[in-house]
Design a protein that fits this description.
Layout: H1 14-27, H2 31-58, H3 68-71
Helix pairs in contact: 1-2
Length: 73
């Protein structure tokens, strides 16, 4: 049966493999499912770092502030 998911081959250390299998067993899910969940979480965290960098650059003492009402008109 064909799947709609994309397969990705990765190489991981034996230490990471042991940890992955342990958390998958703990959560009672297949290790591939747990790997996908962890990868999704890592991408969200990475996105947060990027957005924080953008926000930090914009947060300057000379920044012009708008009221909520003005910003959403």
């Amino acid at each position: 049966m064909p799947t709609t998911k994309t397969r990705v081959n990765i190489s991981i250390s034996s230490e990471v493999e042991r940890a992955l299998f342990a958390v998958a067993k703990r959560d009672q899910v297949p290790h591939a499912t747990k790997a996908g969940e962890l990868l999704r979480m890592a991408l969200e965290i990475d996105e947060d770092f990027v957005l924080d960098g953008i926000a930090s650059k914009r947060d300057a003492s000379s920044a012009k502030y708008l009221s909520h009402k003005t910003a959403w008109q």
